Input
Amino acid sequence: MSKTFDLILKGGTCATPAGLIETDVAVKKGRISALGDLRTATAPDIVDAAGLHVLPGVIDSQVHFREPGLEHKEDLGTGTAGAVMGGVTAVFDMPNTNPSTTTAQSLAAKCRAAKNRAWCDIAFYVGAADENIEDLPHLESLPGTAGVKIFMGSSTGSLLVEDDATLAQVLASGRRRCAVHCEDEPRLRERRALVEGGAPVSAHAEWRDTETAVRATRRLLELARGVRRRVHVLHVTTAEEMALLPDYKDIATVEVTPQHLTLAAPDAYERLGSRAQMNPPIRNEHHRDALWRAIEQGGVDCIGSDHAPHTLDEKARPYPDSPSGMPGVQTLVPILLTHVAQGRLSLHRFVDLTSAGPARIFGIAGKGRIALGFDADFTVVDLKAERTITDRWIVSRCGWTPFDGFQATGWPVSTIIGGRMVMTDGELIGEPQGKAVRFWESL
Ligand code: DOR
Output
């Protein structure tokens, strides 16, 4: 008798833990249920994946979806729609909303708001603040959270942990890996005069210079080692930090963004103006090359988009009043696949950085590989497809991308989450039914 499944992906090249294998994959009850030659098996949904690559669902560990409070830029519906349009199956949303996510109530409100509105699976970071230090162990244990996020330098919103004493207290309060934005606030304040009163946007990388990033990262790593806390250094941008981080591999994991790997000063500021403005800044080729070297040498653990939408009206304010951040969740996959096509990144490393990596770092339960029993999350891609990224394609409420006009080679064809096809050929399918990402430490 032939076996029956809910969905079969036929004939794709699958990125499995054993390597790239041309094989069928079957799904039952949202999980991967069989791998191999399934010619005689049946299912109500059979997807022909011949000529395509079936990758583990891409997890974007850093997005700002702006809800509640800043829905004119983005909300959980538009942000997650952009995610699945771009082949992303799960996201971790940042706490710098209004109000900030610093309490059990605000976390629960986000989880409720995501129900039947999120197109992909989702978890929320809790922000560390002076008022919630003692609550952090409880907050990080709640279902629906990816853990604690610390801003060491001010960025969008009011979350900030500025001095060493407070930072040490935060790090000592809790045990899950804690994600950190490393820019040194005292130095940012000292140097703010550099950009006051009509500086060009290219001065952003001067104001928030290399030393601003390195100083914060060094402080974090020392304190984290002192209190034996695992940390995750978000959007690393400098050669100096990449030189420092291998000495802390016992406690620190490293994230970079597609935009820091792809854009560089001065060209990005000349072409894009304040659309290239983000924190930490886009830097020059010397630093960009160091990020690539760190990718090649294994120093980078995952890639997150730092999707941080602002409206074009807001971006049009004269620098430095223009807000920092750029959208990226929808463009992460095609940008990185283009680096694969150009030989800068292997497909194996792409998978490591976008699914296996985040799963390992954050202890995600049941995601990150194509293996029996894992969630049936797939990013199905055409490595040969040549397409142009345009503002028109972007479904984020902000309606633009710094990669407008980018010629991509490699494109997400379908997004499958928990065995449900939610995007194919650029169309959303069905209803938003994203679930909370589950973690080993809060099951
Ligand atoms: O450029 C940035 N924008 N960096 C951040 O850390 C925050 C983000 C935002 O929320 O706009």
Remarks:
- The mean pLDDT is 97.
